[in-house]
Design a protein that fits this description.
- The complex is a heterodimer of chains A (294) and B (285).
- Chain A is mostly helical and 294 residues long.
- Helices cover 76% and strands 1% of the residues of chain A.
- In chain A, 50% of the residues are buried.
- Chain B has a single domain (59-284), classed as MetI-like (MetI-like fold), CATH 1.10.3720.10.
- In chain B, 77% of the residues lie in helices and 1% in strands.
- Chain B is globular, with a radius of gyration of 23 Å.
- The chains are: A mainly alpha (294), B mainly alpha (285).
Amino acid sequence: MVKIKEKIYQWIFGVLAFASLFFLVGIMIVLFREALPIFKKVSLIHFLGGQYWYPTYDPPEFGIFPLILASFWVCLGAMAVCVPLGVGSALYINELASVRQKAILKPAIEILAGVPSIVYGFFGMAVMAPLLQNLFHLSIGLCLFSASLTLGIMATPTVCSIAEDALSYVPNTFREASFAVGASRWQTLTRVIIPAAGSGISTAIILGMSRAIGETMTVLMVAGGAAVIPKSLFDPVRPMTSAIAAEMGEAPMGSDHYHALFAIALILFLITFVFNIIAEIISRRFRVKLGLAG
Amino acid sequence: MKKKRDLEQFLGFGILFLCVGATLFFLAAILFFVAVKGISVINWEFLTQGPRNGMTAGGVAPAIVGTLYLTLGAILFAFPLGLACAIYLCEYSPKGWVINLIRISINNLAGVPSVVFGLFGLAVFVKYFGFGVSILSGSLTLGILSLPVIISATQEALLSVPQSLREASLAVGATKWQTIHRIVLPTAMPGILTGVILSIGRIAGETAPILFTAATFYKKGYPNSIFSEVMVLPYHIYALMTEGAHPEKQTAIAYGCSFILLCMVLLVSLAAIVIRQKQRSLAHG
């Protein structure tokens, strides 16, 4: 009797444990199912490479190249902000900060990583965009530049805390050995610690990129929303996520526009999926290298 | 030679110091602006009344209540599921490939963009199951989104329970399940709760997943069933900034909403972090 009960519990937990896999596969199935009808109307090459996104015109144009480019540039711009700031802060916290500074900085960064993206979007729209507009004499403040800056600031705490984790795994013996042969603290940092934690830091950067490319509310509010190929840093753009968020409310269910938006989501999903797999592989190597793999 | 080395170190450390300074400056600037402008619009009416005069006056109480409902719903759905998953992974230690498969799917689910969850919720809960744009659809969507966070927090708490406790329990003849629910879970519970509280902060601020599954800009009164649309703080901020006819008055209200949302999220995570630090010092002391 007891044995059967035990087996039943094990089974229940075993089945529920697959919930994540179930939902992940479910998301994939739904995205494919709802996205595929659009490819009967537009070829994949036209969809990805088309220069014009006019989903509501007659006849409509479903070319998402401007959206992909916008996502790419915004993500790159955000990386230019959050990689130096995030990794630099992580190095400071891990290698230079005193115990007391560390006790304040670490939880502070962790709490700030939890600030909702809508607050960053709101800040970008209400404060940053008008400020940049005055500063650079722009016609509109909502553009690629403001979006990159806002998104970069937003991703900084995330990149910082993952990179800090990676640095804290570097064994103290590495440092001691380096000091013992007469290296300065800076030499130890740049030639021993950073190479040792390199793949952990790369994981932080890739996860930051994945987050930046999938971020919705900030770019929806700050990027300006024009679905054209940007010619300068100060052009308004419409990244993939903001196209989905802005247009899904108006797209009639089952229309071509609806299916096209699901196709964008599918491409977004595949991009972040690849990023996550790469991060997974790198971080596993990292753990093996430092002898932490179980 | 020595001099060059010292200069290099001085410059290098200076740059790192600037990085931290800039990060803290930007983040402090955001908190400062939102707090200063937000506090000035908050009063009793703002916290307890609904909006009036086409979103230009009155309060945001229905949006606060809506945020609480959605968050609660999401936790009710995700917590039992996440707990079961973590228990299976930590306590029943299945075969290697099973662990790997589940871990990879958790990591990938965590990386799915939030707007994609929104589309999934729209296609499955709103459309296929016919729940409509409702608290139920929104809670389920947010619940799936928060599952990875809850699983990893719970797993961490379970792993911190000393192995000797399990062994002692099994040695006196307790079964696996008795050990889990009388020994392991009670010991790990404070840690599990901290993790869940932290994820509450994340869920409350999410906007993209509820755009098409739960949120509405204006609804008279409070929601009366799990099938009704709901006003929610994050969506309310977005709508105030992008819709409506009185941008200036609406921006002021949006500052108020951002401040309330920020307070809810930060206080909740601060509480969790303080609890966790207390426990750690108890465990080590």
